[in-house]
Structure prediction request, 280 residues.
Amino acid sequence: MRLLAFLSQVVSGHVGAGAAVLPLERLGFEVLLLPTVLLAHHPGHGAFRGRVLPAEQVRELADGLAAHGALGGLDGVLSGYLGSADTGAVLLHTLARARAQGTVRYLCDPVLGDADRGLYVRPEVAAFLSEQAVPAADIVTPNQFELEWLTGRKIGSLADALAAGDALRARGPKCVVCTSLNREGGDATMIETLALDDGGAWLVATPRLPQVPNGSGDLFAALFLGHRLLGRPVPNALVRSVAATFGVLRMSVGAAEMRLVEAQAEFADPPARFAATKVR
Prediction:
């Protein structure tokens, strides 16, 4: 199976493409990577070198793939941090070209911000994700802050989260997965992931871990898309993706980067640590 990924890339570390490509390869996918950003390392480590890649460069690479026939026979497209709205336009144009040649499932990880830092992308990128990328996607994987921002709904309870997920699904995506869910009535020692599609809604809770490195959202999105493309139902894909992400993070507590290589046995067949509770 083949997948095209529009993701940020770092030379050192495991975020963006560095968190997504190896897990997908371990699941059996050939991954074509179109980098949107190229940095020496994650900006969270302090002063860094690198840049958002010009959209013209990303477009040139996409055109090269098309000329080579590489957009035919794709099973999926994955997008994460974009860097610019112009690159987003390249993404959607490339997606349309791929879908013209067959069925292609698109997962948009709408990287906008988080509860600690708020919105950290440019306003035009946020607008592009909300108005164009999300409606074009089959699956979206926002964290709680991003789901609230995209829907204009504050999430306090499980009912609020379900309503926000439904509101986002009404705009196009068949499946919405809310990560890093913190809600009233939840166990304060746990963190939850909620998935919704036409078949229902499922919740998985995992223990909170201290001092975990960046990149878990990129990892989870890649794993969830991979399992869905392999034909696994939403609750099974959810459990497998959550379990593998937790396994990597548990091994990475206190580390500067996810210990992705050391924990790679988690990807293809993670231990059955958690269960999905059907909440609707």
About this structure: DSSP finds nine helices and twelve strands in the chain. The domain at 2-278 is CATH 3.40.1190.20 (UDP-N-acetylmuramoyl-L-alanine:D-glutamate ligase).
